[in-house]
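Supplementary Note 3. Input sequence used for the single-chain structure prediction.
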Amino acid sequence: MTDEFHIEEINPDEIPSGMGREYWDVSDFIENECYEEKYYNGAERLIPAEIRDEIKSIDFSKIRKDNRTNSNADIRSILLPKNWKKGQDVGEFKGSELDFFKNKVGMEVQFRQATNLIHDVLKLQKGYSKGKLVAGIIITFDEKVGIYNQAGQDSSFQNLDRWIREFRDVITFEIPLWSIGIKP
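The predicted structure, written as discrete structure tokens, is reproduced below.
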């Protein structure tokens, strides 16, 4: 896969603090055969090229979609050998450990309830606000994958985007975030 645009690297220290409500930058959905992606708050410029390239090199078509346990195990088996660390704590609250962490980029992998996406965004935002993260990544399924709970509200790439747009005016959302939705 080749990028159709050039991504300019910038120093995160040059970005003014307090960009949350005054600064709102969202890319269009970008789609390929295996996943969809969307960038918020300049993530395409702030996530180091090494991290972006590493994530884009994942063959998401090989992630098992039969159940969440297998999906998580597949992601873990790809990231841990690439020196992603588990359990980096970004807050002083229960459940503030990140799924994965590398080079000041936090990653959450969410294949469960949509409400867990909210927790993941807030956790990443907390790490960013405390200076522990320069950006965050959330990997979830496209809503067409169809692993749904009884209420039909499992996490999805589309639910994440709807939630961020709905609450961006009431919750400070400054973290540069890259969301990825794995296709069926």
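Strands lie at 30-31, 35-40, 100-102, 105-109, 135-141, 177-182. The domain at 31-182 is CATH 3.40.91.20 (Restriction Endonuclease).
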